[in-house]
Design a protein that fits this description.
By secondary structure, the chain is mainly α. The protein contains seven helices and no strands. The protein has one domain. The chain is globular and about 60 Å long.
């Protein structure tokens, strides 16, 4: 009996460590230091920055009933911030053990904080260097 519990505990520990690595990679893709994914509550504040929403959304995610709506919206904004569509959001919600690693280690690129339209639009614009000498036409 003890061996079964020990085996189960090691299996669950391996899953937790794996998801820390996954979130570390997602944070790095979004231009944040990976270590921010290791701090339990701080991780969610940073995730709100990545998706472009204010920190107080975390409080809304703690209200029973309301939290379901805001968590789904946040996951959708996460997938949109990485250039994915609503189908990918459904995958993140119902089959996260597959889709989060795909987001972290796949070809998805962070394209901007989808929840902040102005910042998302600015991230879509090509960089323009105002200090570079301009060619006259």
């Amino acid at each position: 009996m003890v061996g079964a519990f020990l085996g189960l505990g090691l299996f669950l520990l391996a899953i937790v460590v794996f998801f820390y690595v996954v979130y570390w990679r997602i944070f790095e893709k979004a231009g944040r230091p990976g270590w921010e994914a290791l701090i339990p509550i701080y991780k969610y504040f940073i995730m709100m920055k990545i998706i472009g929403k204010p920190w107080w959304w975390i409080l809304l995610m703690c209200i029973p009933g309301v939290n379901i709506v805001f968590i789904i919206m946040a996951v959708n904004m996460l997938s949109k911030s990485f250039g994915k569509d609503e189908g990918y959001t459904v995958g993140l919600i119902f089959l996260g053990i597959v889709f989060y690693p795909l987001l972290a280690f796949g070809d998805a690129q962070y394209i901007g904080p989808y929840g902040d339209p102005a910042a998302f639009e600015a991230a879509q614009q090509p960089d323009f260097d105002f200090d570079a000498p301009q060619q006259k036409l």
